[in-house]
Amino acid sequence: MGFRVGGLMTSKSIWITWEDHRRSRELAAAFACEYVCFISKRNRFFRYVILSIKTLKYVVKCKPSLIFCQNPSIILALILCFYKKIIGYKLVVDRHSNFKFDSRKSLNPIWFVFHFISNFSLKKADFTIVTNQYLKDFVDSLGGCAFILPDKLPSLDCTTLPVHHKRKEVTFISTFSDDEPILEVLSAASLLSNEYIIYITGSYKKYKSIEQLKKIIPDNVVLTGFLPEHDYQLRLASSDALMVITTLEYTLTCGAYEAVALGKPMILGNTKTIMEYFNKGALYTSLTPSEIAENIIKLFRDIELFQDQVSELRAELEADWNIKFSQIVRALNEM
């Protein structure tokens, strides 16, 4: 098909997504393919109809021989799987999340349909890219063909920003999702002295427990709200340490990649997937407020050691990513 590491040689290739996601932008650049992002703010049904039409019109017009797509959206993956033989292209689906394992045994018909579509796309895609071995084994068990490629460490603009402030600053990278221990972090902050300050990113107004949150927020916590990209990077770069906690297993968080890229010591969740991949430069915590607070104190006690470990981890992850990327390129050449 004509690939080389770092991009395509002759084939027309595009990367299609319905969400503007950093991972997709980074991988599209790495594969040197055109990045096509279709966005609609309509409600779910009309959004799917509008984006499906736009996608198919574009594919028919540009006639790519290879399409990469991001899943989510699962509907995007379904449409491209369905039409790939009709239109005539190879399909690689980047399935970095969205498996919904906790709902596989649900009797809710919505989840039944979701997993039917999910399994169909995993089987019909030529390749599926996942982030870890467990997900690869799952895809392969369904008759699909999976390759492991974690996120590429992002190129951030503020990597050399000096840190000078009186208080010990921790930024909790959050989207106020259900898998993040928001209330537990607030309780942990209340156990810390005012020597520490915790910034929490993300759109807190959409949080399901917003009224409870407002009642218990301590003085040493700042809710930043949603930040534009430049301001978000400045917030991370000016922090002493970064905290990213998810309760979801088999998930590698974007915030942890950002922490490594910036050389920041980390407080991370204690899931097996997180601890195996981000295996140094971090302390791993349960959701108990006392343990979160204790780990913050421990991190600052030896913060220079953790900074050195993050630097080592960055070099290791970059080398590992290049190896895995080369393996996918070789497979594409043989497809």
From TrEMBL:
Record domain Glycosyl transferase family: where: 165-305
What InterPro entries does UniProt report for this protein, alphabetically? Glyco_trans_1 (IPR001296), Glycosyltransferase_grp1 (IPR050194)
Where would you find the membrane-spanning parts of this chain? none
Q: Which GO terms describe its molecular function?
A: glycosyltransferase activity
Spell out the SUPFAM superfamilies in the cross-references: UDP-Glycosyltransferase/glycogen phosphorylase (SSF53756)
Tell me the domain of life.
Bacteria
Q: Which Pfam families match?
A: Glycos_transf_1
* Protein's UniProt name: Glycosyl transferase family 1 domain-containing protein
- What species is this protein from? Cellvibrio mixtus
